[in-house]
Design a protein that fits this description.
Layout (H helix, E strand, L loop, with lengths): L1 H17 L1 E4 L2 E7 L2 E10 L2 E12 L2 E5 L8 H12 L3 E5 L5 H4 L2 H6 L3 E5 H9 L7 E3 L4 E4 L2 E6 L11 E4 L4 E5 L18 H14 L5 E4 L9 H14 L2
Length: 243
C-alpha cells in the first residue's frame, strides 16, 4: 500500500506539470471543470487497446462513467481520485454490457459504491456472464448529484443492443461510449454484437437530441475532436457501401 501511495503521489506531481497522470496502465486527463477522462487498456485481437471512461467531481462525491477495463487499475483509480480530489467515488454507471465498460462493477459494488446499468444491459450481462450492477435504470433518466446533473439516453442499437450515451447539458459534454467511434478509427471495430443497419439511425437520433456538443467522448482512442459523430456516420456508410 505504501508503494502504491508513493507511486500515485508521483503521478499527481506529473499531472501538475504535464496536465495528465499515468499510473501503470491508468491515464487520467483533465477534460473541463469537474470532468476528467481516465483511460485503461485491454487486448483486442492480440493488440493493446485504450478504453476511455470518465469521472465527475461533485460536492457529494465522485461519479464514474464506465469502469476500467484492466482489473489491476480498479483500486488505483479509487486511490488516485482520493489523493487528487480528496473525495470518494459514490456511484458508477456502465453504458453497455461489454467488459471494457462493466469489468469493475462487482469490485466497486463490494466497495460500497452504487452501481447502475440499464435493464437491457443487465439482461445481456447475465446472458454473457459479464459483471452486473446492483441497481437498474428502466428508462432515460436525469440524475442530479450535488451541483451537477446528467441524462442517460438510449437512441437504439448500434455497437451493441444496449449502448446508451450520457449528456451533460450545462457543459454540453456528450459521453458517447462505444456507440461513438473516435476520429482515429479506420473501421467500426468489434461488430460481434452490432447492428450496422440500425447504427446510423441511432447516431442521427443522438445528434438530433444533443445539439452542438463542446466535447464528444468516444469509447476508444482520441477523444479531443468534435467530429466523432460525423466520423462514425462515415464509417457506417463506408461499411454499408462495401456490402
Amino acid at each position: 500500500m505504501r508503494a502504491l501511495i508513493i507511486g500515485t503521489l508521483f503521478s499527481i506531481c506529473l499531472t501538475n506539470i504535464f496536465g495528465q497522470s499515468k499510473t501503470g496502465r491508468l491515464e487520467i486527463s483533465h477534460l473541463t471543470g469537474d470532468f476528467y477522462i481516465y483511460t485503461t487498456y485491454g487486448t483486442y485481437r492480440g493488440v493493446p487497446v485504450p478504453a476511455n471512461s470518465m469521472y465527475m467531481i461533485t460536492s457529494k462525491g465522485v461519479v464514474l462513467f464506465d469502469t476500467p477495463w484492466d482489473s489491476t487499475t480498479f483500486q488505483p483509480l479509487l486511490d488516485s481520485i482520493q489523493i487528487r480530489h480528496h473525495k470518494k467515488v459514490i456511484l458508477c454507471i456502465a453504458t453497455h454490457f461489454h467488459e471494457d465498460r462493466t469489468a469493475g462493477l462487482e469490485f466497486y459494488r463490494k466497495k460500497g459504491i452504487r452501481t447502475y446499468t440499464t435493464l437491457k444491459t443487465d439482461s445481456l450481462s447475465a446472458k454473457h456472464d459479464e459483471k452486473r450492477a446492483e441497481f437498474l435504470i428502466y428508462k432515460d433518466t436525469v440524475f442530479a448529484i450535488g451541483q451537477h446533473s446528467f441524462r442517460t439516453y438510449y437512441g437504439g442499437w448500434g455497437h451493441t443492443p444496449d449502448n446508451i450515451v450520457i449528456w451533460f447539458d450545462k457543459e454540453k459534454i456528450l459521453y458517447g461510449g462505444c456507440a461513438v467511434k473516435s476520429v482515429e478509427a479506420e473501421d467500426l471495430g468489434n461488430l460481434s454484437d452490432a447492428n450496422v443497419k440500425e447504427w446510423e439511425a441511432t447516431i442521427r437520433k443522438i445528434m438530433d437530441q444533443f445539439k452542438n456538443p463542446n466535447y464528444i467522448i468516444p469509447g476508444h482512442n482520441d477523444w479531443t475532436s468534435r467530429e466523432a459523430l460525423t466520423h462514425t456516420l462515415k464509417l457506417i456508410q463506408d461499411y454499408e457501401g462495401k456490402k
